[in-house]
Amino acid sequence: MSASALATTGHASLPALVRQAANALASAETAAQVLDARDKAGAAYDTAKRAARIHRARRAHDDVIAAVHRAQADALEIEAGAKRRLADEYDNAQERGEVGKRGQRTDIVPAENKVATAEDIGLSRKQVFEARQIRDAIQSDPTIVGRVLSEILTEGEEPTRAALKRAIAPAATVMRHEAQQAKKERRNVREVELAARQAALPAKKYGVIYADPEWQFTPYDDDTGMDRAADNHYPTSDLLTLMRRDVGAIAAPDCVLFMWATVPMLVEAICVLDAWGFAWIDRDPTTGYLAPNKTRCRYVSHWAWLKQRIITGYWNRGKHEVLLIATRGKPVAPAMGDQLESWRDDFAIEADASEHSAKPDVFAEWIERQWPNTPKIELNRRGAPRDGWEAWGLEADEVAA
Q: Would you say domain 201-392 falls under CATH 3.30.300?
């Protein structure tokens, strides 16, 4: 097949463009060189795609179109190989701390300590996802790209990126599922190991603390605002009393804290988290910036519990409470895929209406499933301790009727 039979770009024929891309990938040693090979393969693919469209419009001979499609498939295969290597390079750079992970904060880190983002190195998040998908598919089936492209050509179809993506998606899904299962298994092993270390500490420590502090809410008017106050139902404590409670002394080095708070007491709740040792961060004493990789204690998220009745409200008619989540050290996170949604219809569960401030069991039961082996304590527990838990509070020893 002559060069004129194929589309040309300047003086370079399609086969030459494909060879340039193949040679660039074969000799690439750095991520930048792999990225250059990917771009060369992409340029060859785009040229072949345009040539195929032109030849079809001119009703060229089938052999000519087939030759263009062959070059298009070759370019796609080289591009897929480059993307596979880019996925490895990107993940390795993240492990080395050279590229930030998703969700990693950079706004409170000084410029000289900031890590690169995907965009900084010439990749969008979508491109990183697609590269990982191709990498996962090839790991699951090393010959999948070449085989799929050959099948497309045999059927007389055009080998496009979209067609290749559809064909390899099932293999990538299987590989991703297997990786998630392996991650869950590693997470469960770490939870058991961490629980064993915590149980063996000389003083009793807990890896999970579930607290429902006796918040003291001051109404606007003591005459009219105390009729529904918590003080009518159980003793409450002011903010300083709660902050001085040495919960940090019973927390293991790697611990997760779940703490209930009403919406008007949210600022006070963060103060308590900080006082208990679950909200402070390491900062450079000179600059005040967050020291890189030094975050040890932090608020991470919360749930909202929708209640069936109005509970508070001067500015609005409040119907929900929040369950704050904070960590210290490096406790195991929930297993991927097993997290509770932050707000769901089945959270609209009313606790026993006869008990003021009683909470639904759905949260504690989920905690039990995620940390079955970890030493757990419930602060301000009412009634007998839950199975596998210890309890503390004025009413902790009372057995529920």
A: no
